[in-house]
Every structure is written in structure tokens, then in C-alpha cells.
Specification:
- The protein is elongated, with a radius of gyration of 16 Å.
- The chain is 23% helix and 28% strand.
- Helix 1 packs across helix 2.
- It has a single domain, classed as Alpha-Beta Complex (Conserved hypothetical protein from pyrococcus furiosus pfu- 392566-001, ParB domain).
- It is an alpha/beta fold and 92 residues long.
- The longest helix has 11 residues.
């Protein structure tokens, strides 16, 4: 898994209604839990976090800080070391 910030326009998701409490929390604290996405040839697809993304899209109209969100890329193992594949010295 790789964690990074990605612009909203690169993520595809099904937009949903935004709870005002969630929007207010994100406005004050930012996105605390990264949105889970899968990487595709033309961007990213949301796996978990469509409410957070929808809230950020709404908030981005008034504040550019919300135009990019932290994501956790679930299907990219390019930085997985040998420990990921079981070749590790630590056997406890």
C-alpha cells in the first residue's frame, strides 16, 4: 500500500449526500482517515470513503485545501519489500 495526496479530479466515486457534521469536521480537522482507492490506468477508483470525497468536493468550492485528499492505494505493491513476500529474517 502507498499513502499520498491525490487531486479530487483524479478519483472516480459515486457522489452521495453530505452530512453537515462530517463536512464541519473535515473543515476543522481535514481528512483524518485516508480514502482507500485502487489505481487504474486513468486515475483512481474509490473503494472506501465516498462520503469524505463528496464532502471534500463540496468544501473545495470555498477552500482549495480540499482539492486534494490523502489516499491509501490498495492495489499498488511496487514499494513492498521482500518482507511483503515472506522473505524476512524475523520469524516470531
Amino acid at each position: 500500500m502507498i499513502n499520498k495526496k491525490v487531486p479530487l479530479d483524479q478519483i472516480r466515486w459515486e457522489t452521495c449526500a453530505v452530512d453537515e457534521a462530517l463536512a464541519e469536521s473535515i473543515r476543522k480537522r481535514g481528512v483524518a482517515i485516508a480514502v482507500k482507492v485502487n489505481e487504474t490506468e486513468d486515475g483512481y477508483v474509490c473503494v472506501d470513503g465516498r462520503k469524505r470525497l463528496s464532502a471534500c468536493r463540496m468544501l473545495a468550492q470555498e477552500d482549495q485545501r480540499f482539492r486534494a485528499v490523502p489516499v491509501m492505494i490498495l492495489n499498488n505493491f511496487t514499494k513492498a519489500g521482500s518482507a511483503y513476500w515472506g522473505n524476512t529474517q524475523n520469524r516470531h
